[in-house]
Amino acid sequence: QVQLVNSGGGLVQPGGSLRLSCAASGSIFRLNVMGWYRQAPGNERELVATITSAGSTNYADSVKGRFTISRDNAKNTVYLQMNNLKPEDTAVYYCKFAAIGRDFVSWGQGTQVTVSS
Asked: Rounded to an integer, what distance in angstroms lies between the CA atom of residue 107 and that of residue 95?
């Protein structure tokens, strides 16, 4: 069992920045991938960025150059630094933990990010 607790998010003006954090606790599989997904009203949940326990990253094209994902393995925490935010980034952001090589996935509770003037 892996529990995920999100923090960060909120309301920001276009061009602003926010940082999301997601802390994992419980039975942390050593080989894993953590990441962020988002879901806007009326849309399907989509990948934003992921990072493996070895540090390999993957980004959606829409956020490349603006968002940076990082992690602190000692704290089992993943971060998403979001810069130059746009109104189309408005969504509920979900943290995901997946074990590599195992059939195990856990989702965080979601946090709202609103980009509006």
From this structure: 6
